[in-house]
Specification:
By secondary structure, the chain is mainly beta. It has one domain. It has no helices and 4 strands. The relative contact order is 0.30.
């Protein structure tokens, strides 16, 4: 996750989901949720955030999304 900071920049936070050995040509599906609920250690700021999958330390497929404060 790349969370928007108060100054508008993005700060990466890595969440380790699983460790797997995948053979060549093998496909896997991984699902996870990251709720945007108030917590004491992180303040969520409205605006653009991003999600990126990381495999062996390399980022793949960053997707941007907007967080709207209700």
């Amino acid at each position: 996750m790349h969370y928007r900071k108060a100054n508008g920049t993005l700060a990466p936070k890595v969440f380790k989901l699983t460790t797997r050995v995948v053979r060549p040509g093998e496909e896997i599906t991984i699902a996870a949720r990251r709720p945007f609920v108030p917590i004491t250690t992180r303040t969520y700021h409205p605006g653009g955030h991003a999600l990126e999958i990381q495999v062996n330390g390399l980022g793949f497929g960053r997707v941007r999304f907007e967080y709207l404060e209700l």
